[in-house]
Amino acid sequence: MNETLHLQNIVDLNKSLTKGEFTVSEVLLSCYDKINSDEKYVNAWQEIIPIKMQSIAKPYRDLSGLCIGIKDIISTIELETGMGTDQTTWRGTKGGFDARVVSKIKAAGASIIGKNKTSEFAVHKPTNTLNPRNYKLIPGTSSSGSAAAVAAGHVSISIASQTAGSIVRPSSYCGVIGFKPSFGEIPRTGILKTTESFDTVGLIGNSVSNISSVFNVARVQDLNHPLHLNRSSLSTNNIRFFHAIGPMFDTASISLRASTINLIKKIIGDLSILDFTEFSKIDFLKLRIAHYDIYAKELSYFLKRELISKNVSKGLKHFGDYGDTISNSAYRSDLDFLRSQRQKSDLELKNTFIFALSASDQAPPVGSDDKYDSNLFWTSLGLPQISLPMLKSETGNPIGLSIIGNKGSDSRLLNFAKRIFPDMVE
């Protein structure tokens, strides 16, 4: 059996299925064989749907043959949602329904393989997932299982989420593509809510084309969502380019910053690139603090029952307790500030792409903490962001290059990413 059959570009996969060159059953067998070959080392999965329970949809649809993982905070009919806990102190839920995003991609023919491991309630606690690119390095935290499943070649796509940097940073560490859409572009119904202001559903994948195909199915795009109908043009002409690389945004080495700027110049050719700090009026220092406080305050509300149960980790309890100390007036002030910064970004970033580092370095060694990066800024502002594995550390481990667009420019951003990073499915 071809171990990479399930990792093909969805367009090619659909053509081959339509021609009868192979069947969906053979694609699924390829996927399960690959998972069985090394999952005992990677630990990317909380639970897997047995292959005998997979339904083979006919006639073939847009996403037929695409094998997808689901972060373990997203409801599915078949499996419990453990929320990243060990389920000895928190039992998990089996709600009897699919989250809206799961329902949409299933209807398009995709095969849900199982639940990818995540941090406790998708916050900070590391999992036992290993980085398939280098077992000595961490794979990230919140969406670690999602990124590792794609990096290991288990699936071509995993549905994940980001509240600060939970899609982009693990994607950078594991050398895969991470896409965080504009805030609200993919519905959150049936998904754990840790914040009202920041939680964003996105995708981790092995190719921009596969991510685009799933995104176009999963996104909201009907008359009930008029704000999402007025999207930017798909053209990538006449775009202004900025970089957000430097002490305001990352703790990268001078050499990594220099090599990243050189790569950006190769990508945009003769066009000029400007330092975003010299152009923008956004208060990034205050935004970092506001993000932390809003996150803590809203998490303390949505996880109130769990936090008072004393069945959570000390780290999560400490974060929630801090949120409880923030007064309602201070919280409202933070929200007012956040709205003002989002309004500024909407005005400043029209027809603009920003380049940034997806992480300040390669993945840290197992047991180490992340360095700070700029991802929470783009999440706070609700902007679409894609991380492409286009950089290497001095020791040859992957580092992602992020591209950020103005809110609603998701399709244009994906088209630009396809142009500079053609599909290279491993």
Question: What would you say this structure looks like, in words?
Answer:
The chain is α/β, with parallel strands linked by helices and 426 residues long. It has 2 domains: 5-228, Amidase signature (AS) domain (Amidase signature (AS) enzymes); 240-420, Amidase signature (AS) enzymes (Alpha-Beta Complex). Helix content is 36%, strand content 14%. The chain contains 13 helices and 11 strands. The chain has helices at residues 10-19, 24-42, 100-107, 144-151, 168-174, 208-218, 254-268, 284-302, 304-308, 314-325, 328-348, 375-380, 410-420, and strands spanning 45-48, 67-71, 111-116, 157-162, 177-180, 200-205, 240-243, 273-275, 352-357, 385-392, 398-405. The protein has an 11-stranded mixed sheet with strand order 1-3-2-4-6-5-10-11-9-7-8, sandwiched between helices. Strand 10 (385-392) and strand 11 form a beta hairpin. The model has no long low-confidence stretch (mean pLDDT 91).
